[in-house]
Amino acid sequence: MDNKRIVVLGAGESGTGAAILATQQGFAVFVSDSGVIKPKYRELLDKHLILYEAGNHSMDLILSAGEIIKSPGIPDNSPVMQAILRAKIPVISEIEFASRYTQAKKICITGSNGKTTTTSLIYYMMRQAGMNVGMAGNVGKSFALQVAEENFDYYVLELSSFQLEGMHRFKADIAILLNITPDHLDRYDHSFQKYINAKMRILQNMTKEEYFIFCSDDEITIRELENIVLAAQSLPFSAKTIQSPGAWMENNRIHVDFRDDLFSMPLTDLSLKGRHNVYNSMAAGIAGRVLDIRKEDIRTALSTFSGVEHRLERVLKIRDVVYINDSKATNVNSTWYALESMETPVVWIAGGTDKGNDYNELLHLVKDKVHALICLGADNSKLIKAFGGIVPWHVEVKSMADAVKEAYCVARAGDTVLLSPACASFDLFNNYEDRGKQFKQYVREL
C-alpha cells in the first residue's frame, strides 16, 4: 500500500476532476472505470497524462492504493468495493478530497428535494452580489476540477446522500438541509434510517462558528435533531410558524430575521412559484443574510432567478395545452410537489426505475387532478397497480416519442401535460437530463 498512490473509481465528472487535482498535488494516480469512459473525459485524462482503464477493474493495481476516491454512483455492495473494504483501504469522495486543497468558504445544500434549485438560486444570488463564487457538487463542473483550475473565495455545493457517505473530515461553513423523504432506498438496503443517517452527515465537524439552516416543518429532520448535540448555530425556516432568528411565511410574505434585522418580501414577487419553492426561497434568503449580502441584492435575486432546467420547466403551449418538463422529479416527494402546484387538469407522464417507491402519498392528488396517466417505463406494473383504478384513462409506452404522441392525443384545451416521473431514468434513458431533453425535443416537433 503506497500512501502517495491514489486510485480513482469511476471516470465521469467527479472522478476525472479528482484525478486531475490529485495529479496536480503530486500523487501517482490510476483511474479505473468498469464501463465506457466518455470521449471528453478520456481527452482530459490523456491531456494530464493520467493512467486509466475502461471496461475492467485491475484489482492488483486498485488494492495497492493508499487511498481510494470513489465516484458517488458506485455502491458499497459492488464486488470492487467489497474487495477494497476487506483490504481496509480508506475510501473517500471527490468532495472530501477537494476540500483538503481549498480555503474557500463552503455553503452546502442537501435534502431529498429542492437541492439543485436552492443551490443554483444561492449561487445566482452570490454572483449578483459580486462575490467570487463557484458552484459544484452534484451539479455543474466537479468541485475537484474547480479547486485545481480556479481560485474562488466561496463554493456553493449540492451534496447528495451518496457524496455525504464518503465525507469524514469535511466541514460546511453553512449547511442547509431542506427536507428528508424516502429516496434511493434501493441503495440503502431499503432502510429509510440508513438514508437519513447519510443526509445528517452534512452536520459533521461543525462548530459554533458555523450555521445550520433547516426546515422546522419537516418531521424527520426535527426528530433526528432531537437525538444529536448540535454545535452549529440553528436557523430554521417554516411555512407554518414564526422562526426568529430564521425565516417564515406569514400574510402572503416571507420574512427573514437574522441578528434582529428583518427582511421581508411578498410571495407574489418570488420568481419561483409553488409551495416547495417558498421553502427553497426562504432557505436561500437566510443564507444570503448570513453571507451579509445586501437586502436589495437578495430581493433582486429572489425575484429574477429563472429556475433550473428539468425542474417544473415550462416548455411550450400548444393548442391551449401547456407542456411542463419536470424530469428531475426522480422520487415520489418531488412529484408530489409538482402535482400539488398544478392548477389545471393534468395528463401525467410517469415511470422509470422504481427506487422502492410508496405511491400512497400521491393518491389524493392524482385522484383530484389527473385524468390521464402515461406510463413510460420498462416495467410499469407498480404504477398501474397504484393508479390504474383511480385515473380514468392510462396507457403504457416504451419511448418518449410515443409518450408525447399519446399526451398530445388525449390532452384537452386547458390541460397541462406534466412529465414528472417519480422514478429514476436508467431503464430507458442515460439520465434524467436525457429524459427531459427528449421530452422537450418531441414536444417542439408536435
Report on this structure.
The structure is a single chain. The protein is of the alpha/beta class. The protein folds into three domains: 2-92, 3-Layer(aba) Sandwich (Rossmann fold), CATH 3.40.50.720; 101-304, UDP-N-acetylmuramoyl-L-alanine:D-glutamate ligase, CATH 3.40.1190.10; 313-444, Mur ligase, C-terminal domain (Protein-Tyrosine Phosphatase, Chain A, Alpha-Beta Complex), CATH 3.90.190. The protein is 35% helix and 24% strand. It contains 17 helices and 20 strands. Strands 7-8-6-9-10-11-12-13-14 form a nine-stranded mixed sheet, covered by helices on one side. Helix 1 (13-24) packs parallel to helix 7. The model has no long low-confidence stretch (mean pLDDT 93).
In short:
This protein has 446 residues and is an alpha/beta fold.
- CATH-defined architecture of the largest domain: 3-Layer(aba) Sandwich
Name the beta content range. Answer: 15-25%
Low-confidence stretches: none
Q: Span between N and C termini?
A: 59 Å
List keywords for this structure.
446 residues, alpha/beta, Rossmann fold, UDP-N-acetylmuramoyl-L-alanine:D-glutamate ligase, Protein-Tyrosine Phosphatase, Chain A, six-stranded mixed sheet, 35% helix
List the topology elements:
Elements: E1 2-9, H1 13-24, E2 28-33, H2 39-47, E3 51-54, H3 59-62, E4 65-70, H4 79-86, E5 91-92, H5 94-99, E6 105-110, H6 115-128, E7 133-137, H7 143-149, E8 154-158, H8 161-165, E9 174-177, H9 192-200, E10 211-215, H10 219-225, E11 233-238, E12 246-250, E13 253-258, E14 261-266, H11 275-290, H12 295-304, E15 313-318, E16 321-325, H13 332-340, E17 346-350, H14 363-369, E18 370-376, H15 381-387, E19 393-397, H16 400-410, E20 416-419, H17 432-444
Parallel strand pairs: 1-2, 1-4, 2-3, 4-5, 6-8, 6-9, 7-8, 9-10, 10-11, 11-12, 16-20, 17-18, 17-20, 18-19
Antiparallel strand pairs: 12-13, 13-14, 15-16
Helix pairs in contact: 1-7, 6-11, 6-12, 16-17
